[in-house]
Each structure stands twice: as C-alpha cells, then as structure tokens.
C-alpha cells in the first residue's frame, strides 16, 4: 500500500482538544504547576489551530504571518517573568516550555515571537531604567509593539565583544549611531530595534532603543535563505542615526552587561532546538506508522525502530538538560557555561535527530507535505545562532580547565 498524505488540518476542522505531548517520554511537564500547564496547553492549541495549517505555505513563500502576533500575545505568555507584565506565576522552565511548543510546530514562528519577547524584551528588562521598563515592557507583552535585536554585524559574529564596528558618539543629550548589522530578525517591520554599539569615548558597548522611521536607519530583507524562511532577517545600515539619551539603556555600560541578556536567552535557544527535533520526530513517527513496504508498516522494521529510539532518547536527554538549566536560572545559580553547554549539546542532538527523521522518511523527507523537511532545514539556522557550537564549547572548556582558548 502506498503512503497517503492526510489533509492539512484547518482551524475549522480542529475542534477536538489537543492531546498532551506524547514525546515527553519521562513526563517532565509534571514539574509545571497546574496553572502553568494550562498556559502551555493554550499555546499548544493556538499553534495547532492557527499556525500549523499555514506554516508550510508561509515558509515556501518566505513570508511572515505578522497578523498572528497580537492574537498570540493575548495568551499572556510574552510578558511572563517580568514584574511589570507577568500574568501568572511563571518560571524559566515554564517560559522555556512555551518556546518549545512554538518550535515543535514551526521554528520560524518561535524565532519571530522570541526575538521580540525574548531578545528585545529581555534587553530592556535587564538593561533599562525603571521608566524604560514601565514604558516598553507592557507594549511588547501585549503585542502592540514588535521588537528586534541588533547585535550581529557583517564582519562581527563570534568576535562581537572585540570586533563590534558599530559606533555611538554622544553629542549633548543625543547619541549618533553609525555602522551596520546583519541577520536581524523582525527588523523589516519592527516598531523598535535594540541596537548595540561601541561608545567612541570609552570603547564600551552600549544599548539603544531605535524607533522605526528614525532618519538614517534602513533595514533590507535578506533574500534566498534556505532555513527559517518565515523569519524576516535583515541587513541594517545606520547612517548618523540620532537617538536621545533617554532611549539609551541606562543599565548597560559594557559587553559584560550585554552578556547578562545573552545568558538568559541562550538557554531559550536550547528549548527551541528541542522543539525543532520534537516536530521532526512527531512527523516521522506518524509517517513510519502509515508507510508500508514489503506488505507491512515500516515502523515494524528493526532499523527504523533503532533510529526512532535514538531520536526519542536525544529528545529526552535534551529535555532533561533544558529543564535543569532553566531551574538554575530560577535559583540564581546559572552561569555562562551552564547556558552555553545547554545550547551546544541540545542543538547538536537536534541536528542528529532531524537527520534521523529525514532518513526514515527517505525521499519524501525533502518535500514539505510530509512534515519533516521544514524542521530539517530550519535546524541549520538554530544550530548556529546565539553562538556557534565551537564558541559555546570553548566557554564550557574555559570553565572546566581554567584556561581560555579564545584568541
């Protein structure tokens, strides 16, 4: 019997309750409070009803479903964790689980939401004054404002701490920014972009809230991507962009302060990688149960079961690491090397897992219709951003050996 693709569900056909996450093999979700589990379930249902039916089409057209930003914000998860906007008793594990739920349906949508509610929002929450937090965090949390995060540059990725070329020069109560940024998600439509630049006076990194439409600020979409195609990454140019001192992040005085933001968001990438491999695994598991060869489902073949068992083991190990590193964030014991290990390990396991899932789906694994191809492609971007494996490994290596291997 040949394999038949089931029709893609739509919001109208999805009327039954969404089942719990079967790929949580050891039941980690039980660590969440009942209220947090309800929050997770609301996100899961939103993703199944609103995002899954359109994800492949938007991915193929390289367009972003911006219209879903505010409806998603109404779930109340984007402000979780900050006193100005939290609608429930949240935790880093709860917030990580939300990111995983986004990525298991579409890693691009997870990035779209995460750039605004993670990187941009965390920058202001960690680096902003009380006034800046009170003004911007509610707007970012309720979906009325979309944020972006401008750190990476055309010639500065892994060496951003030393190699940042974007400059900020103070002239009275105004700062003048000049330089360029690359791979900046949401930048083509964001209302505000947090731009990181080196102060020409003291050579230290500062953060600035740049509003859309500011003269001299230009964002151009990066075309021809083959990963996270829904995400609208941009090249940014800054030509004498004037920013008021009141829009400088008041608690950011060095790259060390910026690193506090990256530590919080880096383990979020680990959760995203976890969701990406779960998405591929679930699609592959459905496929092998339906696809028949030699008169029986290929799920009954030993080699297929071996690959699927390896995939669920990778997922389970990664979930355990994600949970623990997020618990450490809540406890206040998480250090850079802890977040770096999670990002490095989980993204590596993700890369292996999506490849195994692609393998069991065989030739159909390169077609969007069978559910694995999008996750397989998107994994490549998740594997790289927020620090490559090599850089994160060196952060861990420095911690355990006491010697820095950085140039």
UniProtKB/TrEMBL annotation:
Belongs to the acyl-CoA dehydrogenase family. Transmembrane segments: none annotated. Residues 148-241 form the Acyl-CoA oxidase/dehydrogenase middle domain. Residues 260-400 form the Acyl-CoA dehydrogenase/oxidase C-terminal domain. This is Acyl-CoA dehydrogenase. GO terms for biological process: fatty acid beta-oxidation. One of its GO terms (molecular function) is flavin adenine dinucleotide binding. Its cofactor is FAD.
């Amino acid at each position: 019997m040949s394999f038949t693709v089931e029709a893609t569900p739509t919001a109208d056909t999805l009327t039954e309750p969404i089942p719990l996450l079967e790929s949580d093999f050891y039941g980690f979700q039980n660590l969440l409070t009942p209220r947090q589990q309800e929050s997770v379930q609301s996100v899961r249902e939103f993703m199944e009803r609103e995002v899954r039916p359109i994800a492949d089409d938007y991915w193929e057209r390289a367009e972003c479903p911006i219209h879903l930003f505010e409806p998603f914000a109404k779930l109340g998860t984007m402000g979780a964790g900050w006193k100005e906007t939290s609608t429930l008793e949240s935790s880093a594990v709860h917030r990580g689980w939300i990111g995983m739920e986004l990525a298991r349906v579409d890693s691009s949508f997870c990035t779209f939401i995460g750039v605004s509610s993670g990187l941009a929002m965390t920058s202001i929450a960690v680096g902003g004054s009380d006034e800046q937090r009170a003004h911007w965090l509610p707007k970012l949390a309720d979906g009325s404002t979309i944020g972006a995060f401008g750190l990476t540059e055309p010639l500065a990725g892994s060496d951003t701490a030393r190699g940042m070329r974007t400059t900020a020069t103070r002239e009275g109560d105004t700062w003048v920014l000049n330089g360029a940024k690359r791979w900046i998600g949401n930048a083509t439509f964001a209302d505000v972009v947090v731009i990181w630049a080196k102060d020409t006076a003291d050579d230290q990194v500062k953060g600035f809230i740049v509003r859309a439409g500011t003269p001299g600020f230009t964002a151009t979409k990066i075309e021809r991507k083959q990963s996270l195609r829904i995400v609208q990454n941009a090249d940014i140019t800054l030509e004498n962009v004037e920013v008021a001192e009141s829009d400088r992040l008041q608690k950011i005085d060095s790259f060390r302060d910026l690193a506090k933001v990256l530590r919080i968001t880096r383990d979020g990438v680990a959760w995203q990688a976890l969701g990406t491999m779960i998405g591929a695994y679930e699609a592959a598991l459905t496929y092998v149960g339906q696809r028949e060869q030699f008169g029986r489902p290929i799920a009954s073949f030993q080699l297929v079961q071996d690959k699927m068992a390896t995939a669920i083991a990778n997922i389970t190990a990664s979930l355990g690491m994600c949970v623990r590193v997020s618990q450490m964030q809540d406890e206040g014991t998480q250090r850079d090397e802890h977040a770096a290990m999670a990002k490095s390990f989980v993204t590596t396991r993700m890369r292996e897992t999506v490849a195994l899932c692609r393998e069991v789906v065989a030739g159909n694994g390169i077609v969007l219709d069978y559910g694995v191809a999008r996750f397989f492609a998107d994994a490549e971007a998740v594997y790289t951003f927020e620090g490559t494996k090599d850089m994160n490994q060196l952060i861990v290596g420095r911690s355990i050996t006491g010697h820095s291997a950085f140039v």
